[in-house]
Amino acid sequence: MSDARHNALFTAVYGDHHSWLRRWLYRRLGCPEVAADLAQDTFVRVLHKNALMDVEQPRAYLVTIAHSLFVNLLRRRQLEQSYLEALAQLPETLMPSPEERLQLLETLHALDTMLNGLPSKVRKSFLLYQLKGLTHRQIAEQLGVSHSSVRQYIARALLQCMTVVAQDRF
């Protein structure tokens, strides 16, 4: 589809459905600012997908994307909450500076993005190995899987991280 045709179709879908999507999100979230942000993020994704020509039901398509963004938002909030709880447990002498805390949080978000979409055992194996320093055997015992499965899980997570980093470079 040509860029002009895609832009015209996008403009039509945006005009016809943006207010509806924002209201739909607001009814589920109860926060007008978050609903507006997620609606806007949804349309940014739609703009970059270049797949509107194949969409028969725009509202269902928009809801699918918005729901995915909402799940990501909840996961990020949970990650931030866990991070803040971990910081609260640190002694004052080990407390990172505000700049370091921001860098750590950005790193956590980047790691979360890289591991997004992987099965939970793969993510958990990778994090236990990288962050906790557990051996493959310890991880296998904790997750109730074989040693070779843990090795495969960690390799899969590393491949995912390398793929994401390579895509960001180009």
- Residue windows where pLDDT falls under 50 for at least 5 positions: none
Strand tally is 0
Rg over CA atoms:
20 Å
How many helices does DSSP assign? 7
User: In terms of structural class, how would the helical and strand content be classed?
Assistant: mainly alpha
Percentage of helical residues?
Answer: over 70%
Q: Sketch the topology as an H/E string, one letter per element.
A: HHHHHHH
Distance, first to last CA: 23 Å
- Specify the biggest β-sheet: none
What would you note in describing this structure?
The chain is an all-alpha fold. It has 2 domains: 1-93; 117-170, Arc Repressor Mutant, subunit A. The protein is 81% helix and 0% strand. The protein contains 7 helices and no strands. Helix 5 (120-130) runs antiparallel to helix 6 (136-143) and helix 6 (136-143) crosses helix 7 (147-169). The longest helix has 32 residues, at 58-89. It is globular and about 55 Å long. The mean pLDDT is 88.
List keywords for this structure.
Arc Repressor Mutant, subunit A; 170 residues; 7 helices; mainly alpha; 2 domains
What is shown here, in short?
By secondary structure, the protein is mainly α.
Task: Describe the SSE topology.
Elements: H1 3-29, H2 32-49, H3 58-89, H4 98-115, H5 120-130, H6 136-143, H7 147-169
Helix pairs in contact: 1-2, 1-3, 2-3, 3-4, 5-6, 5-7, 6-7
